[in-house]
Amino acid sequence: MRDRLVLLGSKGGPALRPGGPWPSSSLLEIGGRTIVVDCGLGVTRGLVDAGISLKALDLVFITHLHSDHVLELGPLIHTAWTAGLASPVSVFGPPGTGHYWHRFCQAMEFDIETRIADEGRPDIRDLVSINEFGEGQVLRQSGLKVTALRVDHPPVTDCFALRFDHDGKSAVFSADTAFFPPLADFAEGAGILVHEAMLEEGIERLVARTGNGARLREHLLASHSFAEEAGRIASDAGVKRLVLNHLIPADDAEIGDADWVAAVRKTWAGDLTIARDGLVVELA
Ligand SMILES: [Zn+2]
Ligand SMILES: [Zn+2]
Description:
Mean pLDDT: 96
Number of strands: 14
Number of helices: 11
Low-confidence stretches: none
Strand content: 25-35%
Largest sheet: 7 strands, mixed
Distance between the termini: 14 Å
Strand order of the largest sheet: 6-5-4-3-2-1-14
Radius of gyration: 18 Å
Bound molecules: zinc ion
Order of helices and strands: EEEHEHHEHHHEEEEEHEHHHEHEE
């Protein structure tokens, strides 16, 4: 298996628009492991379309509990279970992930009990282990090392950037964050930095389209990064490739790749990818 990153859902925020991209989720295949990072709406469809057998679901990481990152965690695992999942799935997430999972299983109790009795399936609750993590080392297993860094995403305090290292290859996910200089040390020398990004000129049009505009603008400015800021982190970290992801806005017809490139080129001269759903990036 070649090591690759597949951007399954590339937009920031939970809204869906006709023909537009899906909220946050990514697939990372590294060192023979199948790793899902964030489970926004569309993650299950995205994994299947990327050629992944849901039965092979292995490791799932959640950066924070905003719905555009966690809404489809339960449905993903449940769908894998009905597809014949028979091996354990390990879910790593911030405090509160266990609460989400237990309540999801309660909400689906009728279906789960029915399928166990009627179809002879193993108990889904025994197949899933939930591991709530904080800052520092999250996992070290067969050459795969995963570390977490708390980032700046108010009002959410448990929001973590994640770094995956295996045999000299590495990928870092910024999670959702305002400009956060410690990310540069955390991402130092990484093969790929997947960083969230907003585009200034798109924010006003987005705010105008959405109700509650003033509060939305306030949240975006306090809790997210501009493309130029993502480029600054990538330059300071000396990564091999920057991937702009969790794009805000992601579905404005007036804004295209050229606008993102123009913004990020002010601070980043290296290899660059602007995320879109289904895009594959080889791991260097
Ligand atoms: Zn988000
Ligand atoms: Zn968020």
